[in-house]
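thread: overnight batch results

M.L. [08:02]
morning all. the overnight job finished for the chain we discussed friday. pasting input first so we're all looking at the same thing
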Amino acid sequence: MPVLPLAGRLRPARLAAFVVAAACLAACGAEPEPAPPPAGGGVAAEGAARPPAGPQTVLDVVAATPDLSTLAELVERADLGAVLRDTSQTITLFAPSDAAFAALPAGALDALRADPAATRALLLSHVVPTRLPAADVFAEIAFETPGGTDLTVDADDDAVTASGPGGAGRVTTADLDAANGVVHVVDAVLARPSAV
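M.L. [08:03]
and the structure it wrote out:
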C-alpha cells in the first residue's frame, strides 16, 4: 500500500485535533515567559527594600518592609492589625517611615507608645478608604480618613505628596501592592500626636 500524506489518512475532525495537539506540544517546548515584575511595581527609593511578592495584606507589607518597623510596632500597640489585614475592603496606607517617626518632637514617640487610643487615631489619619496607586494621582484629591481627619494627596513634578492635619510628606516608596490595598511610604508623619 502506498504511503499517503498525513492529511490524506485523517478525517477533518481528527486532522483538527492533531493540529491542536501539535500546537500544544510545540508550546510546551517554547521558551518560558519572563517572570512578572515584583508586587507593587512602583518606584522605590534607592536602597529601599521591597517586601516579598505574593498575596499579602497591607499589614503583611508593613511588617515585611524594613523601613516601617516603628509603624509596625505602633500598629500592634494600637491594635490595628485587623483593620490592615481586612480583605473585605480596600485601603491606601500612607506609611510614615522610621525616619519620619524619629523626626517627631522630643517625647512624642514615647507618648504614642504609652497611649494606644492616641496612636490609633494618629495612624488611622494615614489611611484612605480606597486603593489609590500613585499613577492615579493627577491633581489634588481630598479624602476623609477613618481617623476623622482630612488627607489631601497631590502629584507634582513626578512626586506624590500627602498632607494631613499635622504636616505634609513626600512619597518615597510608592505602590507596595497588597491584596487589600496599597502602601506608600512617606517621609513625614501626617498627623500630630494629641500629646504634643
